[in-house]
Amino acid sequence: MKNKIITLMMVLLLILSMTMTSMAQEGIKKDGLTASEMIQKGIYNQSQTVKVTSELNSHKKFTGYSIEKIPDPNNEGKFIEEEQKIDESMDDKSYVVGIIEESEKSRKEYYKSISLIDPLSTSEQFWDQNVFYGRMGENKWIKKVMDPVFIEILRETDKEVINRFATYDKDTLIDGKEYYVINLNAKNDVRKEIALKVMDKICDKSLLETNPEINKEEIKKQLLKKFAYSNINTSSKYYINKDTKILEFIDKTEIGTITIDKMNIEMSNTIKYKYYDFNQPVNFPEILPEDVQE
Question: Which residues of 138-171 are buried (b: 16+ CB within 10 A; e: fewer)?
């Protein structure tokens, strides 16, 4: 049952993003850039390829009911669904390695997570544009195709909340290098409000200029469903190298709840990211049709 819960969490958390609630600083600039301009430069104007590692400390409490498939006693080889009551907690420490490749026309991301508590427990996630693949261990890949307009809305929402709520902290020194430090504090309700406004802007433009078949109401339902599933507050510190203006570290905490059907998940995560090997060759997994779960 734990593997099923972890798989559900992995798929859902991929579409969760930050929500900002701290007020942007007015008039404070460093090297001629406001905090929002600095972080936009560090994140979106950096390299075409980058490697990333992260360390995750996670606590989750599962309550409610899960739907489990069990053998049907009346039909050999068949399964029936049964509700099972859940009340358990899970602590985990994991190490993640990843690669990102981005150009004007495409974006790919791949991450492999290894549990430090159970080294045999691994998971992989691969984004190819708007197509997501995920798997646990050596199982077949789960494939999920996201609406590209939906993905664009989430990414543009990220940029908008950074524009509005990024704030400078005190500069710091790490391993002899100087870094700008930028705070981003996030709540779900504010991000929801901004995402709906971004949706109106993007959908109206797309409807008029590129794709008359876009269903704006359906996209709105997807957004509202996403925010209904999760109520996550995040607090992050972004470390941007003073010399290169490139993002190199993130310290992040996530606290909140996620609901999947009748299951409620309380979560508390602390994550440390490190970005390195900018513009170096990277290799992504090759996923064949027979490798994907039907």
Answer: eeebbbeebeebbbbbbebbbebbbbebbbbeee
- For the chain, where are the alpha helices, taking DSSP H only? 2-13, 35-44, 148-165, 188-209, 216-229
Which of 40, 33, 24, 10 lies closest to 190, judged by CA?
24
Q: pLDDT tens digits, residue range 204-257?
A: 665 545 555 567 777 777 777 777 777 888 889 999 999 999 999 999 999 988
The helix/strand/coil state of 152 is helix
Which residue from 134, 87, 141, 129 is spatially nearest to 113, judged by alpha carbons? 134
Q: What is the DSSP string of 206-245?
A: HHHHT-TT--HHHHHHHHHHHHHHEEEEEEEEEEEETTT-
Domains of the chain by residue range = 2-281
Other CB atoms within 10 A of residue 230 CB: 20
Nearest one of 234, 238, 233 to 182, comparing CA atoms:
238
With vertex at residue 278, the alpha carbon angle to CA 274 and CA 281, rounded to the nearest 5 degrees, is 115
- State pLDDT tens for residues 33-80: 989 889 888 876 656 899 999 999 999 999 988 777 778 778 887 777
Contact yes or no for 20/190 (Cβ under 8 A): yes
Cβ neighbour number for residue 275 with a 10 Å cutoff: 23
Q: Residues 272, 249: contact at Cβ < 8 Å?
A: yes
Return the beta strands (E) in 72-170 as ranges.
79-102, 107-115, 122-128, 131-136, 142-145, 167-168
Give CA–CA dist 89/98, Å, rounded. Answer: 27
